[in-house]
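Q: Sequence in, structure out?
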Amino acid sequence: MPILVAVALVIVVVGGVIWWLGRDTGDDGDAPAADETEELSQDNETDEAPAADDDDDGSAENAVESGSADDGSTEDGSTTTSTSATTSTTTTVQATTTTITTVPPDNPEQFGPPTLSNRSTVSTVGLDEVHFGMTVAAAQQAAGTVLVPAGPTGACYHVVPHDAPDGIVFLVHSGTIERVDINSGPITTRSGVGVGSPESMVTDLFGDRIEREVRVDGTVDLVFVPRDAGDQDYRVVFNISEGAVRAFKSGRLPMVMLDTGCETS
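A: Exactly. Output:
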């Protein structure tokens, strides 16, 4: 009996030792697997980082492309002849009638005699003989007076004719006259519409060539869209407040449809 007990104890001890050694080996075997999993996660994070950057860049490009598409849609919509007198859209920019002050020129009579007068008229292509697309030098010769900058000059700025009726402001963009604003005074269109004319006069004269745009400040823009193929890049815009013309402008797209005309610079 003592021999059998001793043999049993030896078997138990040896089995325990074998079990213990097997446990350590299993733990050691699991460790590399854990390391490999951790490295894979890090690799995935590293791989995903450029993808996130690519998405950001793509979003920025899409935003820019979306902005370009919106601008194009505006221009396309503007060049389409309206078949309704009440085509309505809501803008997000308030109308302005800015008072512009200038410094008198040193030699105001160098281009005289002046040609702009109370009888001058606005058309789709300009004011009297001052036509859109003229250089400033050519426009001064046509107006017979100095065009005085209303602030710093650059890619886009405004000028006021020195010896001329009140309320006339020209827009210079990339070196050429692109638009004229009439904010007050006696100047009218060739059809006789001027500041203070009733809204009904505009709609009665131009009918379905008018596109109506409601502005966020409560005023309305009545946009005259020419039918002639050669005038499709031109517009005349009448800003209506309380049933009458508050101001109007004529010029080439896209500057004529902008608030100050220099937003694209």
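The longest helix spans residues 2-78.
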